[in-house]
Description:
By secondary structure, the chain is an alpha/beta fold. 37% of the residues lie in helices and 19% in strands. An eight-stranded mixed β-sheet has the order 4-1-9-10-11-12-13-14, sandwiched between helices. Strands 3-2-7-8 form a four-stranded mixed β-sheet.
Amino acid sequence: MRIAVTGSIATDHLMTFPGRFADQFVADQLHTVSLSFLVDNLDVRRGGVGANIAFGMGQLGTGPVLVGAAGSDFDEYRAWLDRHGVDTTSVRISETLHTARFVCTTDADHNQIGSFYTGAMSEARLIELKTVADRVGGLDLVLIGADDPEAMLRHTEECRSRGIPFAADFSQQIARMGGDEIRTLLDGATYLFSNEYEKGLIESKTGWSEAEILGKVGHRVTTLGARGVRIERVGEEPVEVGCPDEEAKVDPTGVGDAFRAGFLSGLTWGVSLERAAQVGCMLATLVIETLGTQEYALRRVPFMERFRKAYGDAAAEEVESYLG
């Protein structure tokens, strides 16, 4: 099964200021702020939902095709993804714009001042999925993740017109989308991904009930935080899967992306929805124990030991056969 992952590709530049932002502001001069903060450290991390999901799938050996847009500064990031089993040939490289970037400074009170530069991500709307499908010999599923909104709409319409199954995953972009856009992006999806909060927001913005939305998609996959995930289908009992025990809770950033990577890898292998969700929850647990969205290491033996402990021998034996 060949899966293309569309979505943002970005780098995060995270800095720490040892003082308090509040101490630097003068009440009667807020209309003319001019400040510079001397920071203690800089942490540069690879990110973007498309790249995060593709990285996780690459770690599991399922050869995802990453579809998105980046700048000429993407070479090092591309090499990293290539080394970890991601097909990056279909990433569009902008001739004029840098890769999308999030720059954020956090103070001693955990207040943050950040900026997001869209950059090359805006060119993702120029990518045609047919070209990608022709290159790899066809696509069985396209995950349409958070990206340039015009790109998300174009990819969705192209999947529908060409009969390519797709998964709708609005993620961060749902906040800026209206009801009409959301209705367009989810109608006919084979899978609809969201967390619990996004689930309610989708229903509120579309005006569709839970039952109506379920009738418009094949599967509704809702992540439940520490409680795991629920998968719903019309006329079927929900599939609910819990999370393995955490060894530490370091950073939740990228946990949802890791779940999707594991779940989609399970679909690639052809295992049941329950098994796919279990793989997703195990991978998400590795990410929450790690600082950074792509800094975890998937080592086969400890991965399977923890998977077996969480889900039993039968589940482990079925999944283990797919891990190289």
